[in-house]
Amino acid sequence: MKNVSILFADIVGFTSMSSNKSASQLVSLLSDLYGRFDMLCVQMSCEKIATLGDCYYCVSGCPERREDHGKSCVLLGLGMINAIEEFDHDNNEQVDMRVGVHLGSVNCGIVRTKKI
């Protein structure tokens, strides 16, 4: 596909944040944070691809074409940075975001359909 944007984000300070938390506390915090990101995704007309540990991936312009795909991802990234500042304040944490956006052509597809 042509004219697609992909946002890649990861949490800076995740390892230090997780070192003094129980597994259930960490799951609760990530659920809170990713819930905030998911709401921003919807607001910015982006689609979440996946979360993998402390990494969050989403796309705009795929599968439905959008002329403003780049703007959507950049605004989402800025919103994520604001959301993590609010998250830090609400949860007395000190983490930050590292965000990158790829704009251009992509190849996409489903590699396997059965989870083993």
In sequence order, what are the helices and strands, one letter per element?
Answer: EHHEEHE
CATH topology group: Alpha-Beta Plaits
User: So, the CATH homologous superfamily?
Assistant: Nucleotide cyclase, GGDEF domain
Question: Widest sheet: strand order?
Answer: 2-3-1-4
Mean pLDDT: 90
Structure description:
This protein has helices at 14-19, 23-43, 69-91, and strands spanning 4-12, 47-52, 55-60, 96-104. With 116 residues, the chain is an alpha+beta fold. It has one domain (4-104): Alpha-Beta Plaits (2-Layer Sandwich). A 4-stranded antiparallel sheet has the order 2-3-1-4, with helices on one face. α2 packs antiparallel against α3 (69-91). The mean pLDDT is 90.
Compact summary:
The chain is of the alpha+beta class and 116 residues long. The protein contains three helices and four strands.
Keywords, please?
4-stranded antiparallel β-sheet, 116 residues, 4 strands, alpha+beta, Alpha-Beta Plaits
Outline the secondary-structure elements.
Elements: E1 4-12, H1 14-19, H2 23-43, E2 47-52, E3 55-60, H3 69-91, E4 96-104
Antiparallel strand pairs: 1-3, 1-4, 2-3
Helix pairs in contact: 2-3
